[in-house]
Structure formats: structure tokens, C-alpha cells
Design a protein that fits this description.
With 553 residues, the chain is of the alpha+beta class. The protein contains 14 helices and 22 strands. A hairpin with a 3-residue loop joins β1 (21-29) and β2. The longest helix has 31 residues, at 307-337.
């Protein structure tokens, strides 16, 4: 096909029908327009016609045409012509004519494949990586990669063509005002990326395209959309129970470790370029092609040597150091400011989790008062320390811990905890249990607060009513057991508002005849499912899984 020279790309025409003859109507559609097959002088073209007449939509249509003009790249249709430069004239029906690719979408193509090998899926992904690498070098980020925007040509089996640059970012397009505003939603439902949603300012990064191609590889292997980087149970696409059987045959290749990095929630932890991902995929292919069985030692090294494990170990090491720094500060300062009357000592440290925590035992003149907690979490590139009062200190994870105790940590953590231990009876202190930090956004301590948050979030309330006539240590043990398992915490965070309240402050309900601790679900102010609550981890898991099935529908 002989394409027009650059000066012939931009035409003055009121409609595509002025210059082209229709071959087939409606051969494609998308959010930015509809497509037809047309011909002129023996040359077939895909004609995309704008849908919508707003100025923003028409300006974006010009942006798409200019992106095509910028990209003289194999496996991307060439621009033949467009009248989009007349976008300000609303009487003009805007269109873009690109070379016509005889083929079918990747989704339709994949639906016809009974079985796709790992090598075939990676081969297609590598070709797409080559394509987007060239688009990125040309200053264009696609931002809408999905199976519907990839054409598999009939003439070239396995040679994908990338189409539809309707929401692309083109750094060569120097407009006075960006077409994409801070709160605009970009991307698609094939794989929703956090950096393309809401108020994110990272909507022009090539990382999004690279991550989307990991989603394409995932789709080729499983025939399922990845949908989101984390589901309600914090699982990545490849970690979901219904997906595991589709990937089990590729275990020795290390593809799980590849997806661990490719689908990391923070864009800074993913593959940063097509080059990075290409190298990783070649490594996967090399491991998949090995015929000799792995020794046990090689298997161990492979499993602990992947990116996910390395990143996790580095994260936990930072949390570990932060917890120990904090405990040293508590031990020395509490003794100093109370002249030894009160001591704070570590009784438990969970340093292999995020957030990690320390359980601190408080003694007054040698008599045990209560145990409290201090948590540390890695948030982005910062370490953040919390107590039950909230955030008390934060520090860049790359910096050394201060040799002199920061005033904010001393005042908000050590002094405040010391004062509340001395001033109040332990049973009146805020509830102390390990999962409190993870549940802080959904935790309430009064019925009024619980009902208010329930209305705001449109969720039922799960109430824990503890017997405050018993020692505080029994209450703490109850809460530790009930919220000990991660799945319980996740179910509350996604399904309920949590209320923890003393029995003496709970409503006097006629249906409550049980003694001791109990739990209930509150819907519309009505207390239901009232039952005895035991300090039993396994029973708590079973009960919350049952509740999840009922209240998440």
C-alpha cells in the first residue's frame, strides 16, 4: 500500500463520505467513535467517525489522529488522512482514516484457541512489547490496552496489531491545557490501574502500558480478565482460587514470580519499561525450556530468589528495624520521665508483617497494669508509626533512624501512653489488640458512632460486646483471638463497620439472656444474630466466612 505523504494527511472535508465509498458499516466501535470499512482508488481504510460533539471530545479526536501521524511503526495502522484539525467547526463530521487490517480482535482469536502454550503467549506479548516500546520512544502512551484494541491479522498469524489511540497521551502535542484533568477516569475494565483512576497525577507513565501487557499475557494464559490488581481479599489476579489451575502447568517457569512484580499495586514496584519486562519474560522462557529436573536446593533458591520475595524481605527488614528503634525509645524514656515508677517492656514483637507491631507491658512499681501496642507500617516510601491515638511519627524509609528522639514521637507516643496508663483504670483504656491498626478506619467504640459510620458506608455493624466485669486481660485475650486471622480482618474491612463496646454500655436488649461476651450484627438499628462470642480463632474464621457470604451479596 502506498501511503500519503505527511502534507497530504490533513484534509478539508465535511465528512468521510465526501472522499470514501462505504464497503461495510459498523466494523468496530469504542468509547471515542464508531468504525466503518471504506475504499477509494483501490485502497481500503478503516474509517473512525467521532461520536459526540463536545469540544473536549473533538479535541481528543484530533489528539488521536496526531498520535497515529506520529507513529510510523510496524504493527500499528498508518494514518491515511483525517479532517480532525477542523475540530472547532462543529458542522464538520470528524473522521480518521487508517490502513485497514483484515483480522479479528485478540479476544475473538483467543476464544477460538483450545490451548495456548506458555511460549506462544509470551511470543505474542513480546511482539506487543516491541510495539509499545517504539510508541513510548515516539512520546505516545496508549493507556487503553485491552484484547478489543489488539487485532490479530488473518494474513500474519500471531502478529498482533495495536489500535485505538483514543485516550492516548502524546507528549508532542503541546496544547495549552491538558485534555486529561486530575479527576478524569482513564483506562478500562479489562484491568483497572490505580494510577489511571481518580485524583492520581501519574496518568502519563509508560508503566501503565507495560502493566497492561502483563494483563494481556495473563489473559492469553487463562482466558480471564485480570480486572484489578487486588481483589476484596487483597489477592493479585494470579493468586485467585479460580485462576490457580490455569497456571499450575507453568510452575517451573517462574511465571508466578513474574506476575508478582508485574501486578504490584504501587507502580514504582512494577516493571518500569518494556525493556525490563522483555528481559523478565526471556528469563521465564529460559526456565520453562529446561528439561532436567531441579534439585531441591535449586528449587529452594528459585522460590526465595524471585522479585516478590526480595521486595518483601526488604520491606520487613525496614519494619523490624523501626519497631526495635521505637521499643528502645519506650524502655529508656518511660523509666526516665517517671523516675522508675512505671516501666515499659516488650513482651511480643511481630516483625514479619505489614503492619508489624510490638506488645508493650506496663508495670507500676513491679505490678502489671496492662499491655498496649505500637504499630509500624510501610506506606509508599515512608515508615509510619501508630498507637491507638493514631499516627505519631513518619520517616523516609531510606533515611537513618534519628539518634535524638523526635519531639512528635516522644509527645504523641511515649508521653501520651504513659499519661493514659497512669491516669485511667486499665479497663477504661481504648481496646488494645494486634489487628486494631488494620481495622482503624472501620472501628468504633460507641453505638452512635457505629450507626453513623454504618449509614455513611452503607454497611451493617458487627458488634463485639465484652463483659467489663471481668479483668481487662480477658477482654484483650478475647479480641486477640477473634481478630487474629488475616481473613477475619479482611472481611471486616470489606463488609462491616466494627463496634467494640462494654456490656455495661450496650443497650439492654430483652433477647440477650446469655452471660459473658457476645456478638451481634446491627442492621438499620436492629440487633440480630446475637450469639455467645468465644476466644477461639478457628471459630471466628468460620463465623466470619459465613457472614461474608450473606452480607457481601
Amino acid at each position: 500500500m502506498t501511503l500519503n505523504s505527511s502534507e497530504d494527511l490533513w484534509v478539508k472535508a465535511n465528512s468521510w463520505t465526501d472522499r470514501w465509498t462505504l464497503v461495510k458499516l459498523g466494523v468496530g466501535s469504542g468509547g471515542q467513535g464508531v468504525g466503518h470499512r471504506a475504499t477509494r482508488n483501490g485502497q481500503d481504510a478503516f474509517i473512525k467517525v467521532i461520536s459526540g460533539v463536545s469540544r473536549e471530545r473533538r479535541a481528543r479526536f484530533l489528539n488521536e489522529a496526531e498520535a497515529y501521524a506520529q507513529l510510523a511503526i510496524d504493527h500499528i495502522p498508518r494514518l491515511i488522512e483525517s479532517n480532525a484539525r477542523h475540530f472547532l467547526d462543529k458542522s464538520v463530521e470528524l473522521y480518521i482514516a487508517t490502513e485497514f487490517v483484515e483480522g479479528e480482535t485478540l479476544r475473538l482469536w483467543r476464544s477460538r484457541q483450545q490451548k495456548l502454550t506458555l511460549e506462544q503467549a509470551i511470543s505474542i506479548t513480546l511482539l506487543l512489547l516491541d510495539t509499545i516500546e517504539q510508541t513510548h520512544q515516539a512520546g505516545v502512551v496508549h493507556r487503553d490496552i485491552k484484547p478489543e484494541n489488539i487485532i490479530m491479522p488473518f494474513a500474519e498469524e500471531g502478529s498482533p496489531v495495536l489500535v485505538d489511540f483514543g485516550i492516548a497521551y502524546n507528549q508532542n502535542n503541546r496544547k495549552e491545557k491538558s485534555l486529561t484533568q486530575v479527576n478524569d477516569q482513564l483506562g478500562n475494565r479489562f484491568l483497572a490501574l490505580p494510577e489511571l483512576i481518580g485524583s492520581s497525577k501519574d496518568k502519563r507513565s509508560v508503566v501503565s502500558d507495560v502493566t497492561a501487557l502483563a494483563g494481556i499475557l495473563f489473559y492469553l494464559l487463562t482466558r480471564r480478565n485480570p480486572v484489578q490488581l487486588k481483589d476484596d481479599f487483597m489477592r493479585m489476579p494470579h493468586q485467585r482460587d479460580d485462576i490457580r489451575p490455569d497456571l499450575i502447568n507453568y510452575e517451573r517457569s517462574g511465571i508466578q514470580g513474574f506476575f508478582d512484580k508485574a501486578f504490584a499495586h504501587a507502580s514504582s514496584e512494577r516493571y518500569q519499561s518494556a525493556k525490563d519486562m522483555r528481559a523478565a519474560l526471556h528469563h521465564v522462557l529460559a526456565r520453562a525450556s529446561r528439561t532436567e529436573p531441579l534439585t531441591l536446593g535449586e528449587r529452594i533458591r528459585e522460590l526465595i530468589g524471585n522479585h516478590s520475595d526480595k521486595m518483601h524481605r526488604e520491606k520487613l527488614e525496614k519494619i523490624r528495624e523501626a519497631l526495635r528503634w521505637a521499643m528502645n525509645a519506650y524502655s529508656s524514656k518511660v523509666k526516665e520521665i517517671t523516675d522508675g515508677a512505671l516501666t515499659a517492656s516488650q513482651t511480643l514483637i511481630l516483625e514479619n508483617a505489614d503492619p508489624g507491631y510490638i506488645r508493650i507491658r506496663w508495670d507500676r512499681f513491679g505490678d502489671h497494669r496492662i499491655c498496649t501496642y505500637l504499630w509500624v507500617q510501610l506506606v509508599g516510601d515512608e515508615l509510619v508509626w501508630y498507637t491507638t491515638s493514631g499516627e505519631v511519627f513518619r520517616l523516609k524509609a531510606t533515611k537513618d533512624f534519628p539518634s535524638r528522639l523526635p519531639p512528635s514521637f516522644f509527645e504523641k507516643a511515649i508521653e501520651m501512653d504513659t499519661l493514659r496508663i497512669l491516669e485511667f483504670d486499665p479497663i477504661d483504656l481504648p481496646e488494645e489488640f494486634p489487628a486494631r491498626q488494620s481495622l482503624r478506619e472501620y472501628l468504633t467504640n460507641s453505638l452512635g458512632d457505629a450507626v453513623g459510620l454504618s449509614k455513611t458506608l452503607n454497611r451493617p455493624v458487627f458488634a463485639v460486646v465484652y463483659d467489663d466485669s471481668r479483668p481487662a486481660s480477658q477482654r484483650d485475650f478475647l479480641l486477640e483471638c477473634v481478630f487474629a486471622e488475616k481473613i477475619v480482618v479482611e472481611i471486616i474491612c470489606t463488609t462491616f463497620v466494627l463496634l467494640i463496646v462494654k456490656r455495661s454500655q450496650a443497650p439492654d436488649l430483652p433477647q440477650v439472656s446469655i452471660t459473658g461476651d457476645y456478638c451481634a450484627v446491627i442492621e438499620g438499628g436492629v440487633w440480630t444474630r446475637i450469639k455467645h462470642l468465644a476466644a477461639n480463632k478457628a471459630a471466628a474464621v468460620d463465623y466470619f466466612v459465613e457472614l461474608k457470604k450473606t452480607f457481601s451479596q
